[in-house]
Structure formats: structure tokens, C-alpha cells
Amino acid sequence: xxxxxxAILGKLRDIARANLALLDAFMHRHRGxxxxxxxxxxxxxxxxxxxxxxxxxxxxxxxKAGVLVAPGDCFGMPxxxxxxxxxxxxxYSDALGIFDDxxxxx
Length: 106
Known about the structure:
By secondary structure, the protein is α+β, with helices and mostly antiparallel strands. The chain has 3 helices and 5 strands.
């Protein structure tokens, strides 16, 4: 793996960049409900619900729909949620579509 680190990390970096672009557009569409800062690095973000409500019910609704987002109360910040964007390219857009549907219905 170390011999091919550039190729492996390059692929992961490309996936994270593509997914972050999708996530950033999603967050801008929902800026009235979710406060978000574009991450400066890494492969996760920690947005919060604008109204300060507990994000756990939203995270649970997302889990039932097949999208895993960690509720902020796991980190002592209940209005937040931890969202990853670096794991895989295939399906990320679909997951954001599900997130959009769940958020719209809540």
C-alpha cells in the first residue's frame, strides 16, 4: 500500500472533492434549515440545524431511509450532525437525494 500511496490517496482525494462539491451545493439549497461551513480539510463536516433543534430525529429518519449521519448528541452538540463525504463516489448523489426528501418532509 505504501508503494502505491500516491495512487490510492489520489483516488480518495478525487472522490472526496467530487462528493464535497455535491454536498456543498446541497447545503446551499438548504441554508435556511442547515448552517454549514465548507470544510478546510478532512472528509467530514459538522453542520447544525438553524433552529437549534435536536438533530437526532432527523438522523434517525435518515437511517430508516438508508442514509447514515451521526447525530451531534454523540459529540455533545445535539443540534449538529456529522456527515462524511469521502468514503465512496457511487451513490453519494442518491444519498443526498434521500436526505433532501427526508429534510423536506420533516
